[in-house]
Amino acid sequence: MSARIEIVGRVSGRRRWTVEQKLAILRDAFGPEGCVRTACERHDVGSGAIYTWRRQAMSGELTGVRKPTEPTFAEVQISEPPALPAPAVAGRSDSSIGIELPSGIRVIVDATVDADALSRVIGVLTR
After folding, report:
1. Which domain covers residue 103, as residue numbers?
2. Does residue 41 sit in the same domain as residue 76?
3. Does 7 fall in a domain?
4. Which of 1, 25, 44, 81 is the most exposed place for a label (fewest CB within 10 A)?
């Protein structure tokens, strides 16, 4: 007398996970008592998917809420003033600051410029 037993370990094909399921798996994998390996075994999901979901969650792509882009720094080069004197402008000091943005836009202001105003202008120009 022989009995045949068949064990199916995985469902064939691609599974679909809801955002809530993905977040629950991430909490299980990366929570206070979390372990990626244990979460993989418990939820029958590959570690590559878990790390992809973590990257998407951290960037806001998973939940649809994107983090605002953080400011980046641009190279600043200090150069000598031009050989020809600039035309005199009322209230202008002799020292000036030239800022060239990565987009090629150049901003030249005098040393008495309001830092908050300049920050807002550069913020708008870098968008």
Report:
1. 69-127
2. no
3. no
4. 1
Question: Encoding tokens for residue 43?
Answer: 């939820």
Residues 6+ apart with CB under 8 A from 22: 53, 57, 62
Q: How many residues does the chain have?
A: 127
At 123 the pLDDT is 81
Contacts of 82 (CB under 8 A, 6+ apart): none
* Per-residue model confidence as pLDDT tens for the chain (127 residues): 567 887 766 555 678 889 999 999 999 999 888 899 999 999 999 999 999 999 998 888 888 776 666 777 777 778 776 666 555 555 555 678 888 877 778 888 887 888 888 888 888 877 7
In a domain, 29, yes or no: yes
Q: Tell me the DSSP string of the chain.
A: ---------S-SS-----HHHHHHHHHHHHSTT--HHHHHHHHT--HHHHHHHHHHHHHTTTTT-PPPPPP--------PPPSSPPPP-TT--S-EEEEE-TTS-EEEEETT--HHHHHHHHHHHT-
